[in-house]
Amino acid sequence: MNWDQIKGIWKQAKSEIQQKCGELTDDELDGINGQRQELVGKVQERYGIAKEEAEKQIKDIEKSCDC
C-alpha cells in the first residue's frame, strides 16, 4: 500500500501504526493526521533514531499495511 492510500484511510491505519510504533500516543497520531513526514519526525524523536532509520521503519509499515 502506498502512503496516499494510507493517508486516505488514516483512522483505520493509525491503529496498525500504533501497534508497530507503540510509543506513539493516540493524540500524537491524531495530530499527525496522515502526514508522512510528520510521522517520520515523530518516530525519529520518540525512538531517538536517525532520520534514515525512521524512514525505513515507515517504508516497512507502508509495505505491510493491511488496513
Describe the 3D structure:
The chain is mainly α. It has one domain: YjbJ (Protein Yjbj, Chain: A, Orthogonal Bundle). The protein has five helices and no strands. Helix 4 packs across helix 5 (51-64). The longest helix has 14 residues, at 51-64. The radius of gyration is 11 Å and the shape is globular. 21% of the residues are buried.
Question: CATH topology, which one?
Answer: Protein Yjbj, Chain: A
Helix content: over 70%
Alpha carbon gyration radius: 11 Å
Q: Which blocks of ≥5 consecutive residues have pLDDT under 50?
A: none
State the CATH class: Mainly Alpha
Q: Give the topology string: H per helix, E per strand.
A: HHHHH
Shape from CA axes?
Answer: globular
Main pleated sheet:
none
Q: How widely separated are the two ends?
A: 9 Å
Into which percentage range does the β-strand content fall? under 5%
Quickly count the domains: 1
Task: Just name the CATH architecture.
Answer: Orthogonal Bundle
- Helix/strand class: mainly alpha
- Average pLDDT reading: 91
Instruction: Please count the helical segments.
Output: 5
The tally of beta strands, per DSSP, is 0
